Amino acid sequence: MGIPFLHASHRVTPKDIDASGSSRIILSEYKSFEHSLQSDVLSLKYVLDGVEEYTVNGKSHLVQAGQFLLVQPGDEVSVGWSSPDAVRGVCFYFDDAFTREFFQNGHSTMVPSRVFVADKRIHQWYTDYRNGETTAEESWWLGAGLTNEVLQQYHSRAQKLITGRPTTRRALLQAIYDATLYLENHAFDKFDLEELAFNACMSKYHFLRVFKQITGVTPQNYHQQIRYRRACELLHEDGMQIQEIAWELGFHELAAFSKFFKKHSGSTPSAWRRGLNQLKIA
User: Fold this and answer.
1) Domain HTH araC/xylS-type spans what residues (predicted)?
2) How far is 268 from 33, CA to CA, in rounded Å?
3) Contact indicator for 95, 21 with CB cutoff of 8 Å
4) Nearest-angstrom CA–CA distance, 273 and 267
5) What is the rounded distance in angstroms from the CA atom of residue 144 to the CA atom of residue 167?
6) Tens digit of pLDDT per residue, the chain (282 long)?
7) How distant, in Å, are the alpha carbons of 33, 86, 91, 260 from that of 83?
């Protein structure tokens, strides 16, 4: 396929690169940046380090490290930030033929541009790329896979809403997606159902019902899943003691963290980490 892999820095900007309508990957690193455009293709903009600030069709989005923004053809996009440290990101662009096939395969074209939380695959890809262990084409397909998952998930969740009005369905989906992003960004804070419902402009009962209808779990269970996933990520790293991880996750007592972790994994944090280290040695 020959996917172009382009590095953008203070010497080269995306507007200097004539690749309109084609598949490409742009790896960027800026302390300050400002650019506006009308999106020509489907694209996924992922932040590796720092925070990128976008405005899409008049709506503002702060995209933090580990999050990405999905942009559709025709979207009016402005992006800009100023930071004392370099902000690193990667943009996956999908050509016209790929975009058309995407939307013809049952994906919803009504996905509002919004921020999504990704898993660690893109960070792992970046590490592999820096080590010379992956190609541009493999990287592009990783971005395509994540985009496919997002659209499939959105389409699946939209079908679960029991409402005949498309505008109401979109508004409810947006409210619940905003709530899930809020929970991701406040994973270490105390769970507050009233605040979530207030932010969504719903009563607690209505918010609970719609959230579970769309995601399949209650807001509190969703929050616990995020904390458990983050606990596993921190335990996977070797630099933090288990007590430090407990504090990081908002647990004031190690016993409370151990009880929480065992409920989700079936083993204590220390046993889980020992098993992981044994797998690394093997």
Assistant:
1) 177-275
2) 45
3) yes
4) 10
5) 28
6) 455 556 555 544 544 444 566 778 888 888 888 888 888 888 888 898 999 999 998 888 888 888 888 888 888 999 988 889 989 888 888 887 877 776 665 554 446 667 777 767 787 777 887 777 877 777 778 777 877 777 777 777 777 776 667 777 778 888 888 898 889 888 888 899 999 999 999 999 999 999 998 888 999 999 999 899 888 888 887 778 899 999 988 888 999 999 999 999 888 988 888 876 654 544
7) 9, 7, 19, 37
**Cα distance between residue 143 and residue 46, in whole Å:** 9
Element (H, E) at 71: strand 67-71
* Domain range 5-159, CATH architecture: Sandwich (2.60)
> Which position has the token pair 């996924």?
44
Among 125, 152, 127, 147, which residue's Cα sits nearest to residue 137?
A: 125
Q: Which CATH class is domain 173-281?
A: mainly alpha
Which amino acid belongs to residue 100? R
Buried b (16+ CB within 10 A) or exposed e, 207-220: bbebbbebbeeebe
54-59: list long-range contacts, CB under 8 Å, 24+ apart. 54/78, 54/79, 55/79, 56/113, 57/113, 59/112, 59/113
For the chain, the structural domain boundaries read 5-159, 173-281
Amino acid symbol at 169: R
Amino acid (1-letter code) at residue 183:
L
